[in-house]
Structure of Glycerol uptake operon antiterminator regulatory protein:
Amino acid sequence: MKPHILPAIREMRDLEKLVKTDYPTCVLLDAHIGHLQSITDLLKQHRMEMYIHVDLTRGIAHDEFGCEYLIQKFKPKGIVSTKPKVIKKAKTLKVTTILRVFIIDSHALKRSIALIQQVKPDFVEVLPGVASKVIQKIYDETKTPVIAGGLIDLEEEVQEAVTSGAEYVTTSNKTLW
C-alpha cells in the first residue's frame, strides 16, 4: 500500500484489483444503484470501507434525499459531492463528508473557499489534483483537510500534492495503487 492514496473505483475490474490490495478505504465513482449492494458486500467481506460519490451514482437522484437513502441503505464511511445541500445532509447523518471542488481559475478558487467555509465538510477534494498551488491556500484559509484528485498519473504528482499539503490523493490510475 502506498501512503496517501485513496483508490477511486470506476469499474468492477478496478474493484477486483482493489480487494487484492491492503487499502482499507476507496471512493466509488460512477456506480449504478443496482450494483451497490454487491459492491458493499464485497468490500465488507474484505474489511474495506467506501465513500460513495453521490453525484456520480446512476439510478438515484443526486440530491439530499438520494444521499440520505445511500447512507441509510449502504452505510458508507462517507460521501463525496459537489453539492452543498448533499454535504449538509450527510453531516446530519454523521458520515464523513468530502466536498469536491473544481479550481479552473482565480474566481473559482475564491468561490470554492467561501463555499468550504460555509459548508464545513470533513475534507475538500480539489480538482485537478495537479493544482498543488491551491492546495495549501485552501487548507490555510479553511482549515479543512484537502484530498487532491484528477489528472494524477505519476508518483511525482502524488508526492507534489502531499508535499503541498494534501492529506490524500484520489486516483483511478491503477499503476499508482
Q: What stands out?
A: Strands lie at 5-9, 25-28, 49-53, 78-81, 96-102, 123-127, 146-149, 166-171. The chain has a mean pLDDT of 93.
